[in-house]
TrEMBL record:
UniProt GO BP: amino acid transport
Endpoints of the signal sequence: none
Protein name as it appears in the record: Amino acid ABC transporter permease
Domain ABC transmembrane type-1: 24-225
UniProt-listed InterPro entries: AA_ABC_transptr_permease_3TM, ArtM/GltK/GlnP/TcyL/YhdX-like, MetI-like, MetI-like_sf
Topology of this chain in the membrane: Multi-pass membrane protein
Chain segments annotated as transmembrane: 28-51, 91-113, 171-191, 203-222
Length: 264
């Protein structure tokens, strides 16, 4: 058996490398799917919370909207204010004991990560929508757009760019926080590492390997998301597309060359 730290690292990777790879794959699958579904939940909740309400609205609309906001607000506060490990225990075991619903471990994992992420994303989306200048909404209304058209075509595309960093942040958090799902039997990277460490009684070396894997996963995702953000930003400089021949845009108006003017 190895006698030094480096020797144990090599030994563990040679004998348990495939197990670490499978665990990392499961971690990424849960994190990506949970973040994607959570974003959809967050957008739905955030949009409902920002629906405008005026004095002229029908009383039924006001009642329904206020009730929906109360329920969604409670959902956001509960799932943001409690640890995901507790949520996993309550949902997985509580659903079976109270309601007789026996979830599979994988369904429970996706469900827990999704609704937890949705609670955080709801506030992010709400803030992203409110961060768009009010003049954008006024302009859309001025050309005849209703609220749904304004949100879909004007506000949400701008809000999405504003909240992209937080979406990436939630993905990175979920990659790390999937370790809490070991309490319901999900064999992801942390669970695998704990099993290897217990089998060999080499906790330091096993979890050092896990820490490096977690860093590689989060760092890679961070760089990919930064690249996507850059693509969403577009070019640093651009020309305004217009058919107005008086506008000073490329292809329609050419500023005279100063050197040519001097020679003339």
């Amino acid at each position: 058996m190895p006698e030094d730290f480096g020797g144990w690292i090599v030994y563990i990777l040679q004998n348990y490398g495939p197990s670490f790879a499978v665990g990392a794959g499961k971690t990424m699958l849960i994190a990506i799917v949970g973040t994607a579904i959570g974003c959809l939940i967050g957008f739905a909740v955030g949009i409902v919370q920002t629906i405008p309400m005026s004095r002229n609205d029908h009383i039924l609309k006001k009642v329904i909207l206020r009730a929906a906001r109360f329920i969604l607000g409670a959902y956001v506060e509960v799932f943001r204010g409690t640890p995901m490990m507790c949520q996993a225990m309550v949902i997985f075991y509580g659903a079976a004991m109270v309601f007789g619903i026996n979830m599979s471990e994988w369904f429970a994992a996706f469900f827990i990560v999704s609704i937890n992420t949705g609670a955080y994303m709801a506030e992010t989306v709400r803030g992203g929508i409110l961060s768009v200048d009010a003049g954008q909404t006024e302009g859309a209304m001025a050309i005849g757009m209703n609220h749904v058209q304004t949100m879909m075509n004007v506000i949400l595309p701008q809000a999405l760019r504003n909240i992209m960093p937080q979406i990436g942040n939630n993905l990175i958090i979920n990659i790390k926080d999937t370790c809490v799902l070991s309490v319901i039997g999900i064999v992801e990277l942390y669970y695998t590492t704990n099993g290897v460490a217990g089998a060999l009684y080499r906790y330091f070396e096993a979890f050092a390997i896990a820490m490096v894997i977690y860093f590689i996963l989060t760092f890679t995702c961070s760089k990919i998301l930064r690249y996507i953000e850059g693509k969403m930003d577009g070019a640093d400089s651009y020309d305004l597309a217009t058919t107005d021949t008086l506008a000073h845009t490329s292809g329609l108006y050419n500023y005279p060359d100063k050197k040519g003017e001097n020679e003339a």
